[in-house]
Amino acid sequence: xxxxxxxxxxxxxxxxxxxxxxxxxxxxxxxxxxxxxxxxxxxxxxxxxxxxxxxxxxxxxxxxxxxxxxxxxxxxxxxxxxxxxxxxxxxxxxxxxxxxxxxxxxxxxxxxxxxxxxxxxxxxxxxxxxxxxxxxxxxxxxxxxxxxxxxxxxxxxxxxxxxxxxxxxxxxxxxxxxxxxxxxxxxxxxxxxxxxxxxxxxxxxxxxxxxxxxxxxxxxxxxx
Length: 224
Ligand code: HEM
Ligand code: HEM
Prior knowledge:
Fumarate Reductase Cytochrome B subunit
């Protein structure tokens, strides 16, 4: 295949395919989840009644927070929150993406300034570096890390590394190559979401709302 034909394929059909795989894949995972779980016919034991979780004074709140994961590992909670906020906000509210969206389907979302999204990109990459170093340097994390964890981290950061290089025209003579790699990296990440660890994007919420005793935020009346 000629280079330009490959370029056109990556920019055109593959972009559509990746969005379709992303959305249909998520729908399929929802369907699978409800197929694998069933309503629990027995009385539901809720270890933490909601009244206690939500009520209380400021001191109670601080006490509860200190017993939660925030109290145990606050740096990790902060880094992971910033990482995920940047992961969603940067690509969704990026001017270049929204212009492409407008061309493709005629509608676009609000866009932040390019310099602001560029800053979010850098912050995101530092958070990714933090996760990488943590996996390499902290013995108890290294012990439960395998190549898949590094691969997932690479898949999540590759669109940001290549997006950054494209925006800054770091390899100006090879812009076409860099932007193709960026688009490809973004498409691979999107298609990977429903079928890899990235699927925690939906199950993080679904489990907590509908599975009994999974620290249920909701009624939690389903069981495996
Ligand atoms: C699906 C196909 C995608 C296309 C066609 C696409 C296209 C583009 C284009 C044209 C740019 C601007 C480059 C420039 O200014 O020269 C860009 C930048 C960027 N893209 Fe994408 N992108 C895609 C997917 C993604 C995904 C999935 C992510 C992240 C989850 C992502 C993250 C970024 C970021 C963060 C930048 C800006 C970097 C910066 O300003 O420092 N892109 N993208
Ligand atoms: C919006 C919904 C999402 C939520 C609520 C969420 C939540 C979480 C949580 C709780 C963790 C564990 C953090 C820890 O180790 O303490 C995590 C890790 C991670 N998430 Fe997400 N996530 C979401 C979406 C995504 C998406 C869409 C991606 C990428 C496509 C992603 C990529 C990652 C990566 C790479 C890690 C592991 C970092 C590491 O320890 O190496 N997340 N996420």
